[in-house]
Design brief:
Layout (H helix, E strand, L loop, with lengths): L2 E6 L6 H14 L4 E7 L1 H5 L10 H10 L5 E5 L5 H7 L3 E5 L4 H13 L3 E5 L7 H13 L2
Parallel strand pairs: 1-2, 1-4, 2-3, 4-5
Length: 142
């Protein structure tokens, strides 16, 4: 049984998230498990200027309700590596939107635990920030 780890903020759930989770679950295989890390508010604030609109509890509950997800866990840093070192998945899924340095560091950690890294495409047309900006723009024109 393969264990795959993937991680998200999941503030506004959209098709891009679902496609990434669907791909990660497919990589796990029929009898594999997908564990999803949901970034805590503090972890999000390491890289973004504002905390998520939805509470952490709401976001982790949403993740647990998605059919591709076998288990959602708290990710307390922006980097998935502390969770990866604890969980020791067979495969870590990274987004192609992350820096080459972060991807390479993740690749090295996965190699050290006899796992592998899979880079999953980022869907730029599906972005929580883009959706939030569209909502703000539409509300400012009324």
């Amino acid at each position: 049984m393969k264990i795959v780890y993937s991680y998200y903020v999941l503030d506004i759930v959209h098709k891009g998230h679902l496609l990434m989770m669907k791909n990660a679950k497919a990589i796990a295989g029929e009898d594999g498990k997908l564990i999803v890390g949901i970034l805590t508010d503090e972890a999000v604030l390491e890289k973004k200027p504002k905390k998520p609109v939805l509470s952490f509890d709401e976001r982790i509950e949403l993740a647990n309700s998605i059919k591709y997800v076998d288990l959602a866990v708290a990710q307390e840093t922006y980097s998935p590596l502390p969770n990866v070192k604890k969980i020791r998945p067979d495969i870590l899924c990274e987004s192609s939107s992350h820096t080459e340095e972060a991807i390479e560091e993740a690749r090295e950690v996965m190699k050290s635990i006899n796992g592998r890294l899979v880079v999953i495409p980022y869907y730029p047309s599906q972005s929580s920030s883009g959706i939030k900006n569209l909502i703000l723009k539409e509300n400012n024109t009324e």
